[in-house]
Amino acid sequence: LVREIILPALVAAATLGIYALIYRSGGGEPAQSQMIFRNPFDMQPLLVFALTLLATSFISGWFVAQFGTGGIMVSSASIALVDVDIAVLTAGRLSQTAIDSRQAAQAILLALAVNGLARVCYSLITGPRAYYARLALATLSAVGAGAASLFAAA
User: Fold this and answer.
1) Which terminus in the chain has less CB density within 10 A, N or C?
2) Position 13 confidence tier, pLDDT thresholds 50, 70, 90
3) For all residues of the chain together, what is the average pLDDT?
4) For 74-114, how does the pLDDT look when each residue is reduced to its tens digit (9 = 90+)?
5) Any alpha helices (H) in 68-100, and if so which ranges?
6) Residue 53: what pLDDT?
7) How far is it, in rounded angstroms, from Cα 18 to Cα 134?
8) Nearest-CA neighbor of 109 among 144, 136, 61?
9) What are all long-range contacts of 131-139, with beta carbons under 8 Å and residues at least 24 apart?
10) pLDDT tens per residue, range 120-137
11) pTM across the whole model
């Protein structure tokens, strides 16, 4: 599974890294973080994650049983609108039983792309236009480069 994912993921990550270096070298003071630190041992987020993973595993398994490979693509893309981790874990688990590793790799890469594009859409709604424009350019470039390397390797 890692063999199918590694090249497109590295190409996309390198593309994002290049954009980060370009934007960072623009100068200016870094913005102050508004991050709120919480207790890392709080059980509520862990319980929500575990229940979400359980539910999406059942739903994804049902999609695969009903619709075959297309089912995992639909469920991975849908789940990735909210959380990419669960989509990746679900596809990885299904690669051990219901789908082959190439299909799981494609579902994982699709989930990563959908999640990145969803973040671009969320930034359009919630953030300043300048941030949206930079994020959109970097994300679209990374998704395009990752997709090109996936198809070139095939």
Assistant:
1) C
2) very high
3) 87
4) 989 988 988 899 889 988 988 888 888 889 999 999 999 99
5) 69-80, 84-94
6) 81
7) 12
8) 144
9) 134/19, 134/23, 137/19, 138/15, 138/16, 138/19, 138/20, 138/23, 139/16
10) 999 999 989 988 999 999
11) 0.81
Q: At which residue do the structure tokens 């890294």 appear?
A: 17
Lookup: tokens for 113? 């792309």
Residue 63 is predicted with a pLDDT of 83
The H or E element spanning position 95 is none
Q: 3-class SS at 127? A: coil
Is residue 50 classed exposed, middle or buried when 0-12, 13-18 and 19+ CB atoms within 10 A define those classes? exposed
Place of tokens 């599974």: 1
CA–CA separation, 27 vs 52, rounded Å? 41
The residue whose two tokens read 């690669």 is 95
Phi, psi of 28 (to 5 degrees): 85, 165
Structure tokens, 122: 């969320």
